[in-house]
Amino acid sequence: MKLISYIENKIEKTGILYEDGIKELNCSIIDAIKASHIEEFLEDQLISNFSEIRIIPPVKPSKVICVGLNYRDHAHELDMEIPEEPVLFIKPPTSVIGHLDPIIYPKSSRQLDYEAELAVIISRKGYHIDEKDTDHYIGGYTILNDVTARDLQSKDIQWTRAKSFNTFCPLGPCIETELNPLNQQISLKLNQKIKQSSNTKNMIFSPHKLVKFISDIMTLYPGDVIATGTPPGVGPMEVGDTVEAEVQDIGVLRNFLKKEL
User: Fold this and answer.
1) Are residue 33 and residue 107 in the same domain, yes or no?
2) Hey, which residues does 237 pair with through a beta bridge?
3) Do 161 and 103 have their domain in common?
4) pLDDT digits (tens, 9 = 90+) for 177-220
5) Is the pTM of this model over 0.85?
6) CB-based contacts of 90: which residues, under 8 Å, 6+ apart?
7) The last residue of a domain, from among 37, 56, 75
8) Among the residues of 131-255, which ranges form H helices?
9) Burial, 130: exposed, middle or buried (Cβ in 10 Å; 0-12, 13-18, 19+)?
10) What is the Cα–Cα distance from 86 to 27, expressed in whole angstroms?
11) Is residue 49 scored above 90 in pLDDT?
12) How far apart are CA 85 and CA 213, in angstroms?
């Protein structure tokens, strides 16, 4: 099931995404994830004209926890050793934007890079979650582009500045609640040219291991996002570019680059 958040007539709504349109749900996206009988929340009307709505980020996270160097082929590309534990950093909620929203190229950076990632959506509050119980806390998966000011990252000891500008966390377009996260083709196109292409089976730490590891550090809340790392092929974007991150059974997250005014 693909769940989507959108704005229609200036009202934020939740719906189920079908091939021919969207059916509205009269509940929140987190309630929809946890519902045992989703039919109870379905409205009859099918929205088939997507020009009448604006897709927004599927959740409003309290935090976005990201994992660095979590693909074996990416580590090989960089000639780096496989980490023994996940390397974590956080992007603030103010960096989150949705499908078709512009990524703003800040004046203070000279190199903005794309990083396509599979992202975990947390559906329940949890702390010290046992790995065998993590499916109970994973509500689904979406796509994330971990936009990075690479030139600023190389200047700083910490990555916070390089990862945290407004618009540096495109997220969406939907949440897939039924997904095998360990065998998904993941790719990224820049102006229709493939730049990244791999499979989530190349992850070093699975989403379930990441949920366990992170929840031993901090409490996870419904709507929180865990970005599971990027495959090889990371590179720069320019103002005017269109960037499309894709995960096989989820869809395509499309954004474009605008200059900061």
Assistant:
1) no
2) 112
3) yes
4) 999 999 999 999 999 999 999 999 999 999 999 999 999 999 99
5) yes
6) 63, 64, 65, 66, 160
7) 56
8) 150-155, 160-163, 207-215
9) exposed
10) 35
11) no
12) 9
